[in-house]
């Protein structure tokens, strides 16, 4: 399903729309050197996330799935000085790389990184953050997407946004029997037809996928 033009166009867009950013290049290099999988959002997707966060004036953002902190840096950069990114990561090794990358990017003060399975951390956030986030980015394991979405709904303010990544999966969302495809499909089935969710299919350097955007009512 991959098409070389998608990569070429993404390269073209990056040249035109993405300034050289040594901090970001260093973050990616550190993640690669540590052997982390290169499954972070693309540069264009990162800038899209950043613009979305700025457009809604996000002051508190929740991210599930930190990896090496690439999307986290972009989200943290969208915050005001007293804003906060809470980001959850199951793998200590990933979190270590991310923490160093956040420090090098100068955003550590705005980032709270929790190590552990998200489903264990999420209940602990309720006391401090119930209906407190402006934006949630769901990008951890996709098998648990429906459960993550339920938590995100409780933790997001009215009018806030939930962005769920990787819900199209080269079309595997239709019939795929792997846990990730089933998770994505269950999420879409649970979203409901109230018109408060939209899925945008995407192509680019990460192949054919898509994300769901929900406004919390
Ligand atoms: N958002 C990142 C990419 C995340 S990749 C970026 O774009 O830069 C998915 C991450 O989710 C991986 O680091 C993986 O270790 C983590 N993850 C997987 N299962 C998890 C779980 N149960 N709880 C928290 N994080 C999990
Ligand atoms: C994978 C995870 C992601 O979040 C993504 O955007 C692409 C791939 C993966 O686990 O392979
Ligand atoms: Mg993803």
Explained architecture:
Helix 3 (43-55) packs parallel to helix 4 (70-77) and helix 6 (118-129) runs parallel beside helix 7 (145-155). The protein is globular and about 40 Å long. A seven-stranded mixed beta sheet has the order 3-2-1-4-5-7-6, sandwiched between helices. 46% of the residues lie in helices and 20% in strands. It is built from nine helices and seven strands. The chain has one domain (4-215): Rossmann fold. It is an alpha/beta fold. Helix 7 (145-155) links the parallel strand 4 (133-138) and strand 5 (156-164). The structure holds S-adenosyl-L-homocysteine, 3,4-dihydroxybenzoic acid (DHB) and magnesium ion (MG). S-adenosyl-L-homocysteine is lined by residues 39-41, 64-65, 67, 70-71, 88-91, 94, 117-118, 139-141.
Sequence stretches where pLDDT stays below 50 over 5 or more residues = none
Task: Bin the strand percentage.
Answer: 15-25%
Q: Gap between N and C termini, in Å?
A: 36 Å
Structural class: alpha/beta
- The CATH class is identified as Alpha Beta
CATH topology: Rossmann fold
For the biggest sheet, the summary is:
7 strands, mixed
Bound molecules: S-adenosyl-L-homocysteine, 3,4-dihydroxybenzoic acid, magnesium ion
**Quick one: how many beta strands?**
7
The radius of gyration is: 16 Å
Overall form:
globular
CATH superfamily: Vaccinia Virus protein VP39
Encode the helix/strand succession as letters. Answer: HHHEHEHEHEHEHHEE
Looking at the overall shape, the CATH architecture is: 3-Layer(aba) Sandwich
């Amino acid at each position: 399903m991959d098409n070389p033009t998608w990569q070429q166009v993404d390269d073209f867009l990056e040249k035109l729309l993405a300034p050289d950013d040594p901090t970001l290049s260093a973050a990616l290099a550190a993640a690669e050197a540590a052997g982390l999988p290169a499954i972070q959002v693309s540069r264009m997707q990162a800038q899209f996330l950043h613009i979305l966060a700025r457009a809604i004036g996000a002051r508190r953002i929740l991210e599930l799935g930190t990896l090496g902190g690439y999307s986290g840096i972009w989200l943290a950069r969208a915050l005001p000085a007293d804003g906060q990114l809470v980001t959850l990561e199951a793998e200590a090794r990933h979190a270590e790389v991310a923490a160093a990358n956040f420090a090098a990017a100068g955003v550590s003060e705005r980032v709270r990184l929790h190590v552990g399975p998200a489903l264990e951390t999420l209940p602990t956030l309720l006391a401090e953050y119930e209906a407190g986030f402006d934006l949630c980015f769901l990008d951890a394991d996709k098998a648990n997407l429906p459960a993550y979405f339920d938590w995100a709904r409780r933790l997001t303010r009215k009018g806030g946004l939930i962005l769920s990544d990787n819900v199209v999966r080269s079309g595997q969302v239709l019939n795929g029997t792997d846990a990730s495809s089933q998770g994505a499909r269950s999420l879409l089935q649970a979203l409901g037809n109230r018109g408060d969710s939209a899925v945008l299919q995407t192509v680019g350097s990460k192949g054919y996928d898509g994300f769901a955007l929900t406004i919390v009512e």
